[in-house]
Amino acid sequence: MQQNTFFPPVTLQNCEDEPIHLPGSIQPHGALLGFDAQARLLTRSGNAETLLGPLPPLGEGLAETHLSPQVRAFIARLAAGDDTGMETAELTTGAVCYDVVAHWHEGVLLAEFEARPADAPPLAQFALQAHRTISRIQRHRELQGLLEEAVEEIRRMTGFDRVMAYRFRSDDSGEVVAEARRDDLVSYRGQRYPASDIPAQARRLYVVNAIRLIADVGYRPVPLEPQRHPVTGAPFDLSHSVLRSVSPIHCEYLGNMGVAASMSISIVIDGRLWGLFACHHMTPRVVAHAVRMAAQLLSQMCGVVIERVESANRRALQAQVSERRTALVEAAMRTPDLVHALTRNALNVRHLVPCDAAAVLLKDETVVLSDAPLDTFVGDIVRRLEDETVGEVFHTDHWTPTAGVDPHGFFGVLAIPFSRDEGGWVIWLRQEQVQSVKWGGKPEKSLSYGPSGARLTPRGSFDAWTEVVRETSLPWLAEEVEQARALRGELVELCLSRLVETDRMRHRFLAMLGHDLRDPLQAISMAAGILTRSSHAASARVGGRIGNASRRMERLITQLLDLSRLQAGLGLPLNRSPQPLTALTEELLQEVQLAYPQLALHAALAPDLSAQVDPDRYGQMLLNLVSNARSHSKPGMPITVSLAEEDGQAVLAVGNASAPLPPGINSQLYKPFKSGGPNARNKGGLGLGLFITYHMAAAHSGHLALDYQDGRVVATLRLPLQPPV
User: Fold this and answer.
1) For the segment 238-261, what is each residue's pLDDT rounded down to a tens digit?
2) Could you report how far apart the first and last alpha carbons of the chain are, in Å?
């Protein structure tokens, strides 16, 4: 087969980029002429004069000695118009009747001539036959019966030895789902073909040009003369051509199958290639243009019916699932326990998407709807998806678990995050679907070596080759992914509305704390002071305890009010002034020692250290750190407090003996309302101390950090001695 003269040979490296729409040649069962808008000849196929008679030199128009009057009139009319569609006519020139197909593309009028057999029925007859078949096809309500009838009718119309309905799958591989064939041919029904059999550029052409005939797989291409536009220098684009030469790789592929002639008819739905009707003949075969058009019309009607059936199925499924989703979300709105609403009722998340297991995660709670122990597996999925910053929906039918994590046979994952701050996720899981895939020959192309080096060769055998596919689930359908996306949107909206309501209630509560509780606390503190000064020892002890408790309550109220300001974005007000930091620290530690006389407190303070700080806020930070150390220290072990100057900063360090900090806890240390951490003695803590201290330090242009040193957790507060200018 002749090689295109202006593109390199097809190799292993460039097969996917082969410009098959610019072959520079046509098939030899017809002729091609190209004209400009003045009907001047721009190019012609090398066999044009042999088939059509004398032609004008390139750059000149048709004269009376060229072609026939009716052909010249046809060309002149199209050249003078601006219709960019395809136009067909039965025209005679030189005593031969031709099917002439013409179209404009990129400023070139391409006219193609195919000799019409003397016994070819008229187009009207085939149109009538196609109309009768279409009437039957339109009544179908399921796809398999539709495709079975279509392949039988196309084979009857065209006379091909084999006609197959070929449907593309989600991975772009294809499967023969219906077949009509000669009795002595082996069946290809049920065989799969890899996506590489039809490269991306071929798929594009199947959408642009719905029918393609190869009358003789062993043909010798007829080159265009010239192959490039004489004005622009660009190769002629034959995307819409009916005679376009095809890739030599594809011809070799068909030859390996024993096919001598081929015709493909696209099934295009909503601008995408849904499938093909693939026609094979064991000897060369020219199919009249009228027959091809009737087959194309039949294929187009099949596309309409397929779209109607699939749309009806999708609508029915979406209506059912949408009803379930609405009921599920309404149930969630009626209860404060969102996880329970999504998992524990008769209607739960498993009913929204076909799956084998599901899980819902929120805050520190995980509920798995499965008999298998999947908590570890689900936790690993969430950690990895959070690291990858997944968007609205994640889905895969081939999840690869982390080493050491048992997936328990689940490899399909569909996940939606609905609350990033609280770790809210819904996850659906599908088990491995072991498949025996019957490929049409081994799916890999082979590599051969010749004078030009490595070259990709089409598969040489098309005997059925079975492959067992493991660790893959059924794929998630587009409508299933959309249902998950819709649920995510409703859950996000529900969480946001609850957050707004919680924030409103929080403001009410904090207002109550700030106003309604401080007055009673002041009265309690005054009464405690009177009892403390009593001459009766028991009354003095009770007064001291009441005083300590009221001071703790006062600090808690202050922390909650500070929290409210920080979460509202108002910041913390500071009233800085020069302070004797050493003396202030000593005074605060004495208060701690009086409040907790049994506490072992070891202090090492640099003498006469001063800094510009807010004394009340500094005291609040120090007491928060000491309180935090006391709550988490090993019983009986001392709390250490040091104050020093370092690099123009005051460095306050508070340490306590403790077990090492759990891995990954650093990201949680400065969040409010966290759990008490590794020490069970502080389970009732709200986790506000470190959060507020961290932000107070930042307000002072300082920094707070926790680390573990020699068996002790040390909180280090760094404050500038002088505020930044």
Assistant:
1) 999 999 999 888 888 788 888 999
2) 82
